[in-house]
Amino acid sequence: MRGTGRVIYVFMVLGIILNAVSTYFYQQNLESIMTEDTNAAWYLSLGLYGDLLMSVAAVLSVATYSKNFPQYIRFSYWALLILVTIASLGDLDKMIRFPSIIYSAKGIGTYLNIGIMFFTADSFYLKKILTWFYSLCFIFLLLAFVNISAVGVASNREQLLYAIREFTIYIIWVFPFFFYQNFAKRYLNTVNYIAFFLLLLLVISTGSRGYLIIYFLLFIIKIYRQNKFSKSSGIMMFIGIIALIVGVYIFVVTSDFYQTIDSAVNIFTDRVSDDSRSGQLIEFFNQYDVGSILTGVGPTKTWNWSGARGPYGYLDNQYILITWWAGLPTCLIYLYLLACSLFKKSYTKVHVGGKIIITMWVLACAGLAIYVTVSSELYYYFISLIMGMLALSHIKPKKVISQ
């Protein structure tokens, strides 16, 4: 089995690398993609090849490791895959002509690739995979600040989004898992705190209220847990945070970077009173055909949204989106999978960061956060791994009867 695990690991690493390179070039060209509709770029094909490698890893993981998991996760995975396939039958001709649909937020390949969660049964190679995801957090964080520096004084929210959106989304969904760990090497804990506070500037720059809420919830939970286990370390950490904030403030107000930060804060405050979620849902339900609630309308259907000034295929609320295109049973099974991940009894030690991220994901899918969905993106591959890790903790250890 170790040999199979190594093969899966290689496929996953190659998939991660190709998707990371694709994410980089996608971020660097985000403005032209959004304004000029340049969807045939070579780096998008690179991401597609990465997703194909992830599919191979998912199939091998299901075949090799799924028997080690509780019944609920095996049932959920196969039920989701079957229901999504049924919902997609009417659009097979379009998927053949446009393979990228297969790995879109409404694609069969995207749900197939959730199967990488079964790879978490291989603890040896899982640690190595997690190291890749952790390293990418710092690479994307550095690249994000390079882009912010290049943008300079941003006059509107779009400029900052074009500079850092994809990097920020990845970091906020992946990095907290490691932020909640206490590393034996203490300098890593210090580095994680610094990175987490740098992330705050990225979150503010996106102008996303939902991500700011998620950020502070993550921070409050971290402080609570730190104080719970060690009051002295909690006090020292609090002093360190104050010193860091003061130091950062003195640095930015005396540098040219202050204008960029000031612009980001102004963009965020302008967004506070903006309510786009409810308006989107009202427009959507005015066009919704209740007759398709069980079967869904398929992955390529659209609805007319004034915010997109024409046909649009997505929603900020992911549960309603799944119900619309894949049917209510598909949405209920996905909710069942998330609920089991959070509330099933754990018999072995589970990483607290995993449950916290899944909790935030549940809220994000309900509309708290934007730019995220069930997808073939790096952040969702990581979330799939977290669901696998949580599922393993739900297995009751077998009792050994002494002779």
Annotation field: number of helices:
17
Which outline best applies? globular
What is the percentage of strand-forming residues?
A: under 5%
Radius of gyration: 22 Å
Strand pairing plus helix content: what structural class? mainly alpha
* Assembly of the depicted chains: single chain
Contiguous low-pLDDT stretches (5 residues minimum) are: 249-258, 399-403
Number of strands: 2
Largest sheet, described in full? Answer: 2 strands, antiparallel
Taken in chain order, the helices and strands follow as: HHHHHHHHHHHHHEEHHHH
First CA to last CA: what distance? 30 Å
The number of domains: 1
Order of strands, widest sheet: 1-2
Please estimate the helix content: over 70%
Mean pLDDT metric: 85
Question: What would the keywords be for this entry?
Answer:
403 residues; mainly alpha; two-stranded antiparallel ribbon; 17 helices; 2 strands; 71% helix; disordered C terminus
